[in-house]
Give the backbone structure.
Amino acid sequence: MKKNIIVGQSGGPTAVINGSLYGVVSEGLKQTGVCRIYGMINGIEGFLHDHYMDIGALDSTNELELVRTTPGAYLGSCRYKLPENLNDPVYSQLFEKFDEKDIGYFFYIGGNDSMDTVSKLSRYAAKTGSDIRFIGVPKTIDNDLVETDHTPGYGSAAKYVATVVREIATDATVYDNKQSVTIVEVMGRHAGWLTAASMLARKFEGDNPVLIYLPEVAFDQDAFIEKVKECLKTTPNLVVCISEGINDGRGTFICEYASDVGIDNFGHKMLTGSGKYLENLVKEKIGVKVRSIELNVCQRCSCAHLARVDLDEAVNAGIYAVHAALEGATGKMITFVRNKSVPYELSYGTADVNIICNKEKPVPAEWIINEGSDISDAFIDYARPLTQGYVELPTKNGIPLFAYRR
Amino acid sequence: MKKNIIVGQSGGPTAVINGSLYGVVSEGLKQTGVCRIYGMINGIEGFLHDHYMDIGALDSTNELELVRTTPGAYLGSCRYKLPENLNDPVYSQLFEKFDEKDIGYFFYIGGNDSMDTVSKLSRYAAKTGSDIRFIGVPKTIDNDLVETDHTPGYGSAAKYVATVVREIATDATVYDNKQSVTIVEVMGRHAGWLTAASMLARKFEGDNPVLIYLPEVAFDQDAFIEKVKECLKTTPNLVVCISEGINDGRGTFICEYASDVGIDNFGHKMLTGSGKYLENLVKEKIGVKVRSIELNVCQRCSCAHLARVDLDEAVNAGIYAVHAALEGATGKMITFVRNKSVPYELSYGTADVNIICNKEKPVPAEWIINEGSDISDAFIDYARPLTQGYVELPTKNGIPLFAYRR
């Protein structure tokens, strides 16, 4: 008997999350056991309010192909946590809606919070004897999911950070007759994978960014100032990359050291990032020209530096998810297993979603060197293959063309 | 008798300022009347301290070709204003250095401050009977030079802004079940050309960015809040683009309304951008989710969205400068004359540098519509041709390869 598929996206967007959506939809349409493919609008939260679309119908247009290379989340996203208590009425409501639409396969593309949703729905299904299969498709620029070598979205974000930091370093050195410090703040609250990718920006040994700080290691402000002074002797235009989540190792983010200071015109606390805080610290303690740059949301939504490897893997994760579900898997997340780095070789697998959700994978301690101010070359072997390859984007009037819901 | 060329770069970098450098050097090397080509390191300021290189020698390597597509300023830049008084000894020092190096032709790639340098040096030459020819090659992402249709660097920066604003708008709408305002602050202190380019991000009529504010029109905070409220009714995830230099029309920048408020840990005033100020204003007056994004230095130094038209024109400006100087011109800047927009057709000319320096060209008043909150379609005809075409960049390990001085 034919069943329908439903697919949703959840959490922050990435450059390739729509690649996985494309994978699920295009592969789902090929299956003889599948009839229609629904997309939840704004994830499980939107679906609860009956917001969904017939995304399989896009296949008859060029739109589905355009979805593949569009950043953001085509279906819209949500940050909605299902109740811990499986007896909560929201579950029976959801499963009634699934049954009404004759859903046989549920795919959720997201990070560890989204895997929590897959975990709860699959456990509720097991409890109630529902045969709907629930599969998670990983996605996060943070690269912090356990049980997988890496996550779709990371490779393109890493390439974005490496390229942009190289550009910023080029800009920062045009007045190289004057000393200066440029602090670049990269996304990553708890895991430093994306900030570590800034080391790929170096054109030669000792090139900028000379200093790199991750949240995995306690940040010592005095030691930082000493390092900066030391490095300025050989690199007059110093670029430092930091994770937004650098912290003192005792539970306080570095940005929090500043947050109780500024009050805006309206009496609100002015939130300062860690980069801004360190900018002021360098100005005060060293007195050289200093600026901080917070890389903006383009880290997660730019298509400028799409890595072909990353996009292909994101699509394949969606394809593999369809196969896994049709073969009977449920309560699983698709995982990446690296066979080797040189030449790079990957296989796909699955892991129990219950041991993935709500966990975070840090950058290995042994890759963080020089008193927490640099990253070892082992990271290059890990990350570089993920950033490879160019994706030609469809354009119109010179600007990349994006799919969007009408 | 053969003479030498000297070339320098000055002011802020652009994505194609090295394209003009490439044009001067590659064309200079072809001239029978030219012997060597020197590059000033860090502009006229560096040259005063005898910092220069034999940039013509790069021709025997691949490096010169790499310079063409490298953003930033390969020779390094400066912000140095020559004295108003032509009797200042710095002039005789400079001309002695020129004569020592047998300089016949001086090229300076920069914006209106740099044209001031060309003006003064050419006037000193006229006064003292020197036959060195001084030519300015325009460069600025601000597009604010008079006497030229546009400036090299603007097209790529405009394409960058349009693309990134489209990406940001895509990111901003993933939670489209909630109202939100995203304020994007674009470079441009006095002229709004670059901010206006954000209108090219629209995918359809009425698309984001729905509101665009330039420094050319007085900014009324109350009217702004009313516009935002009105627009949120039809566009729940609203994107607003503003120039950093928006002002109240009475000489005060909007960002200055906030700047006397926050004091950091060290007692310094915390400088807030106009975007951050408006973020707080929207939070206070409307209460919806709001964030501001300051587009960083990549606006001027990213090679991600190089426009082929812009790069080609930058190279041609350098080539044309060499021809103009050899034909006897001095005290001139290379200008762009648009023959028509559809199909786009450009010719090159020269204009008296004295009527260019220290002047700024605003966006025409008739192109700024809807009480200063939008840009007319006439701008599209003007700007779109300049953003066209793709440039394939040399890469290594997946990251764009840049030239740099050893």
